[in-house]
Write a structure and sequence with these properties.
CATH architecture of one domain: Orthogonal Bundle
Helix content: 25-40%
Order of helices and strands: HHHHHEEHHHHEEHHHH
CATH superfamily of one domain: Cytochrome c-like domain
Radius of gyration: 21 Å
Bound molecules: heme C
CATH class of one domain: Mainly Alpha
Strand order of the largest sheet: 1-2
Largest sheet: 2 strands, antiparallel
Structural class: mainly alpha
């Protein structure tokens, strides 16, 4: 880890949050009581200074037990429902990642795909399905894509435990609250195409020390022992598939900029936006499992993100341009009503 320590030493704090809306607080004492009350409500709703609730304060009753079980399942997914667990029937996940390989700090980190507030934001309209989805269906979206596996049965113990943990993480948050720091950093769209060749250099200098020269990660133990990874793979057969959210460059770049190299947060990011896009382009050009039937995603084609790198494509633009950009010309065509065909 020596090289990594060197890397993050002396890094300037980067704002990196210009695209994030910040609720303005009224000057203290200036507002009449009614306005003050509504400002207080707005403050809660903006969800600015949230923290994950403290799980150590939960009693050891049945609810506390299932919440803890859910947390463990999401951290050590590979041990319980991974492809190497003894009980073949429990092999729901197709890779040895943990949910918290991408949902950082057990789902408590801003811009690290947090789960705080998730429970109260579903059911939710989802463009990928063009339908209203439940939280369980969203979990299974990650099971089939990020975890390259199968759906968990809705009535399984595992699903119940995961739902209990998500429920706990939304303790005290009103339904429908939009929290700041949800998802990943939204980077400004690059005017140029992301460059996997430049990204390879970024990878070698900033990522390979942990994720390996070949991107295959570092196991905790041996293949087959269901102990997962110390440093998860970024590509290869044990990684997320090409239908995963993070297989889209904008989501990958935002995740990487706000969380990688491990040890930084969005408040002290080390990569420039360009480097984040380039390294994401390199990572997402490497071989990984392929999800079938991706052409059925985003059945309402106007919802299809411009960086969704699978067919059908926006007429007039190549697969390559959807994957790496430049995206502004595709966005302009979309604005004129040109969408991928059925
Ligand atoms: C390879 C990375 C990765 C892994 C592993 C992963 N996820 Fe996700 N997950 C994401 C990304 C990225 C998003 C947001 C995607 C988007 O906006 O389309 C997401 C979104 C979600 C959401 C919706 C959150 C919200 O507030 O809208 C839930 C719930 C979720 N994941 C659960 C899980 C569970 C449970 C697992 C493990 C079984 C898991 N994820 C594994 C990357 C991952
Ligand atoms: C100091 C070690 C370290 C370095 C350096 C590092 N990572 Fe990670 N990375 C991790 C760990 C550990 C995780 C799992 C999440 C966690 O525990 O923070 C992770 C998770 C990830 C994930 C999501 C999980 C997956 O398997 O896909 C991606 C993508 C990722 N890193 C990309 C990068 C990129 C790109 C770089 C270089 C810019 C980088 N990382 C540098 C340690 C590191």
């Amino acid at each position: 880890m020596k090289r990594f320590n060197r890397l993050i030493t002396g890094v300037a704090i980067s704002a990196g949050m210009s695209s994030v809306a910040v609720a303005q607080s009224p000057p203290a004492g200036a507002a009449p009581p009614a306005a003050a009350a509504s400002a207080a409500a707005t403050a809660t709703l903006s969800g600015k200074d949230w923290k994950a609730p403290d799980i150590t304060k939960l009693p050891d009753d049945k609810y506390g037990q299932i919440v803890r079980q859910g947390k463990l399942l999401m951290e050590e997914t590979y041990k319980h429902i991974g492809p190497e667990v003894k009980d073949v029937k429990k092999r729901y996940a197709g890779n040895n990642l943990g949910c918290t390989s991408c949902h950082l700090e057990s789902g408590g980190r801003k811009f690290g795909n947090p789960w705080v507030g998730t429970f109260v934001s579903f059911p939710q309209y989802r463009g990928r399905e063009d339908a209203v989805s439940t939280t369980e269906e969203r979990i299974n979206g990650c099971m089939e894509r990020s975890m390259n596996g199968k759906k968990l049965p809705l009535d399984s113990e595992e699903m119940k435990a995961m739902m209990a943990y998500l429920h706990f993480l939304s303790t005290g948050i009103p339904v429908g609250t939009k929290l700041e720091g949800g998802g990943t950093l939204k980077l400004k769209t690059l005017a140029r195409a992301a460059d996997p060749v430049a990204g390879k250099q970024v990878y070698a200098s900033t990522c390979a020390s942990c994720h390996g020269e070949k991107g295959l990660g570092v196991r905790r133990g041996k293949a087959g022992d269901a102990n997962g990874y110390q440093f998860p793979p970024l590509w290869g057969p044990d990684s997320y598939n090409n239908g995963a959210g993070i297989a889209r460059l904008t989501l990958a770049a935002g995740f990487i900029k706000g969380n990688m190299p491990s040890g930084i947060t969005h408040l002290n990011a080390v990569l420039t936006d360009e480097q984040a896009f380039d390294v994401a382009a390199f990572v997402n050009s490497q071989p990984r499992p392929v999800k079938r039937n991706l052409e059925k995603d985003f059945p309402a084609r106007k919802n299809k993100p411009v960086d969704a790198a699978f067919a059908p494509y926006t007429p007039g633009f190549s697969a390559e341009q959807h994957k790496f950009g430049p995206w502004p010309p595709i966005q302009e065509a979309r604005a004129k009503g040109v969408y991928p065909l059925k």
